[in-house]
Amino acid sequence: MPAYTFKVMEQMKQIQNEIKQYVSRRQEFFEYNSVYHKYQLVKEKKSIFFVLGNHELSQFDTAQIAYAEYKKRLEPLGITVLCNECVNYFGFNIIGGVGFAQYNDQYNATTLIGPKNMMLEGRKYNTHSLEIQESQIFKNKYLEALDRAKLEKKRLLVLTHYPVEDWLGTEERDSSCVYFSGHTHRNYLSINSKEYIYADNQIGYKSVNFCLKRARLGFCKNPFMQYQDGYYEITIEKYCDFCMFSGEPIQGVTVLNKNLINAKLYMMKYCGYYGFFIISERNTKICVGGKVKNINKIKNLNDLYACFQNVLVMYIRILAPYRTLQEKIAREIKEISKMGVNTWGIEGKIHGCIIDVDYYHHIMVNPLDGKITFYYSQTWGQVQTFKNYFSLLEHINGGLPEKQKRLLLEKQKQELTTKDMLISVENINESPEVKHIQLRNSVYSYSYTIKQLQRLFDSNILREWNSQWENEAFIANGMIIDEFEKMFK
């Protein structure tokens, strides 16, 4: 076993000991109140479920040998190791396994570590048929577990190391499931009416610490859906519920609690848009997730609500044309990605001034002049730019076998010629080599601000403030670009 596995096991032992003490201290309370089923709920919290990843498998000749060894080592500790197996746990069904990457043409056993037989096949023959077989085994078990869960009217928790798209492909995620995964070392969270995917607790290679996060398994709803336009005093719990509904759960409320000493938390709603403010005798702050930002000293709620409307409308009017352009590009990326580019499910994701093609290939849209840049970047501040989107696709497909790459590029080229936005744009500053850029003097410098403002379109939340607009209800169309430029000066 890899050395770090033993360290994780020791930490798991400590976690279990703490839970046992937790149960023991409360046992008399539950017995006194004769609430046996609640006592069982607390007692069951000591259960730990474990799935293997490709690194854990790398010391073994086959995945099956690894499964047996980890079960032998971990199950005596009370840890349930799931290897393509489904179990029932407190009203839920849980299916777990490695998952593997039968649908990932780039990051699979031909390029990543794993069981020795898969690595040998991948390196020697440039194929991953053994991995595909193992991945299909898990997929079949998942489909069986899903049918059973629906028949029993239970929620199905799906625990895998590899991301969902690697073992399920383009098949629709089921809304009755909650998916947990890791592997990519990049946090990802998707909570909406169609899917529940938690991949937001990834540790990476260098970190020596890890923590356990909580995930809500029930249906998330907007706690303010029925509220009329206006302002309302609310609790932190309701604010956290709203953030969960919006797909950005707050990991801690320490900052909020500290700022709420001698202060109150308010929600303001206007035409389906929301803002959250902490008002004290000293000042008013806007909530930015689990953080806060000073904005002004307006204490009168009517006055603040009027300012909220003005600032909200100004931001939307200024950002709407830019957002429309980004969304058009994102749609075209998603259409072309169906032609075979495997991007681990993030294709077309908009964050700040950047639109992801995959984790390392991106498109940046300059909000000031509309210039579009196609580039590759593995490290923050280092970029390699390309002349056009087709050149970027060639770079993405570079790791594929020559015949497959040629056929794929031809299909993508045919699809690309129908896309107005991507086919019509070329970057005159193409750079074949990776170059360092000055972050302070680049679009990166204000991409973070844009990202905060984009919550207006992603979640209908205002998280930025411009005090100059507090008393301006309208703006002439000719002034919009000027105001856009002022935002970043």
UniProtKB/TrEMBL annotation:
<protein>
    <recommendedName>
        <fullName>Calcineurin-like phosphoesterase domain-containing protein</fullName>
    </recommendedName>
</protein>
<dbReference type="InterPro" id="IPR029052">
    <property type="entry name" value="Metallo-depent_PP-like"/>
</dbReference>
<dbReference type="GO" id="GO:0016787">
    <property type="term" value="F:hydrolase activity"/>
</dbReference>
<dbReference type="InterPro" id="IPR051158">
    <property type="entry name" value="Metallophosphoesterase_sf"/>
</dbReference>
<feature type="domain" description="Calcineurin-like phosphoesterase">
    <location>
        <begin position="41"/>
        <end position="186"/>
    </location>
</feature>
<dbReference type="InterPro" id="IPR004843">
    <property type="entry name" value="Calcineurin-like_PHP"/>
</dbReference>
<dbReference type="Pfam" id="PF00149">
    <property type="entry name" value="Metallophos"/>
</dbReference>
